[in-house]
Amino acid sequence: MSQSIDLEKAKKLTRGITIPPRPAALQAVMKEKQKEYPDLNKIAEVISQDVTLAASVLKSINSPIFGLRRKVTSIKQAVTMLGFAAVSNLVTGISIRTATSGSKLRLERFWDTATDVAMMASRLSKQLFIGDSEESYLIGLFHDCGIPMMMLKYPDYKKVLIEANDSHQVFTDIEEKYYPTNHTIVGYYIAHSWGINDKVCNAILNHHAPDMLNLSDPEVSSLLAVMKLAEHICHTHRRLSQDNEWDDHQDEILEHLGLDEDGYIELREEMTSLLD
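Above: the chain's sequence. Below: its structure in token form.
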């Protein structure tokens, strides 16, 4: 069944788990975003002042999956070409990755995969005309962000993660056999703390729900269908693990997205070529 939770309960269930604070550069960008008329030059200036952040944004924008016809060489150019929302999402993604990089965990592969899923989800959203591409990017990026925090809190979490990935049981049910919370609740709380909108937060909370494609908000279900396809393509490409959840929900996901078997295979091959 789908999950519903308020912030106060989420806060209690995540007590003792590290919740990374939103970085100053992202706070400045988000503050500008909330204005009726955001100043694109000011946003570009904020990002450019952080050399590492700016370099990471440009590297991501110039990756093949964005499909730009010419190389972007400055943040100002990036904001002008892609718009504030796309650049803001890239900054958010790089920030959440950076916020967890100082831990004892080796998370490079985890965040590389999350970034691929995010960009793939955004691309699929545009190509299939389903949902909002910027929200699709955020759910692709944040849906599993609770996992590193669970790993930091619980030394044996990796064993539980393997058990959940190898099982056809609901992922969060397995987590809750061992712990008082699960990674979707942690991810939901992190996303809310970082100012992510309610729709994406609810998608994070329900991305392992058996009825994820029949939620009360159909837009959240569509976000999840796009994300699940993006995740499947990326995980298959990287050969990360068997994808039991895809096996269990493939037919209904493809139906939700309006894809038959031939259309799915053609789309998968096209998207995989971008990852190559």
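The radius of gyration is 18 Å.
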